[in-house]
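Re: the 376-residue chain
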Amino acid sequence: MKCCENCFVDRYLKKRIRSDGKIGDCEFCASKSIYTINPFELYENFAELLELYEPVEEGEHYDRGMNKEAIDVGDSLPQAIQDDWGDIFNYDKLDLYNQQCDLLDEIRIGSGHYDYKCPPAPSNELWASKDKSLFHVSEEEQWSGFCQHIKYDRRFILKPKGLTPIADPKDWLPLLLPVLEMPLSAGSIIYRARINPKEGIPKPLEPELMNAPLPNKTRSGRINALGIPVLYTALEKATAISEVCPEKGAYVTVATLHIKSFVRLADLTSVPRIPSPFACEGEKLSTVIRQNALLSCLDHALSIPIRKDDSDIEYVPTQYLAEVIKNANYDGILYASSLFTGGKNIALFEPSVVRIEPNTELFRVTNVSCSFELQK
């Protein structure tokens, strides 16, 4: 049987069929005089995607003791893939529970890539992604594993086993940075805030006090190690003020900073969604998924407010990744603010890239909101 480019909406699969197929009639969607291919020839495209799914089993994906059934976590294999990745098959051309399952079986089973003593389950049975397993390691657990490893096991030369199971970021992160790059041209404006001393008459702090601290006065932060100054700024005044965590009634000075020359930022707020499970040339799909998850966790970790009782060792994971970004010749990092909705922060590795306007501004904090959630 032959399938065709009209059976799919994924552009990578359509391109593969146009490249290697021949004009003919499709036996799945009934399209005529179109590029067709034997389904089993697409197995190499689907192999890594299929590795992410498995038939639903009690004790592995659900527990009847917790009032769960297979149908609660499983679906046909095409639907399970659709739920995670969006459209792969052409729903206008192929019926979900019949033709899509038949086509996927031809791709999987027709290829012969399985143990004949244990034939694979049909696509129309209940399947689930492996991340729905009761024993799956979540993104947060992967990040936690990385943090534990670099804080308490290996500080400078990391081992994949401790990263559950991702490789040392210095080996792969620089390759991903070009898609995260955000340029700031000369003259771009950013902001920096500092809380004024409580004593004395409120007035704006002098511009020279709004730069990064000197090395001998630089404490550890989420991006900088002890003694290494980094300039923490924001794209918006409100974000800059929020990031210093002022109390109600406090006075805060805000300085306007001008970028003196072109800078390159690693924008962690725009970690790209993997466009297609068939787009990861040269990299295992599961590896790319874990790398994207770690970058998203890094953005979140940088946005968490620093607490006064935080130990310096808590900053080591984010400092390490920031050092990798700095070593790749980036000038700073753009990351989300958790203290001002929609706000963005910028940490510049070299404070001298900015010029501080001589006229700083003084603000009085009139209100501080608080939200909370029950921890179970």
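The chain has a mean pLDDT of 90.
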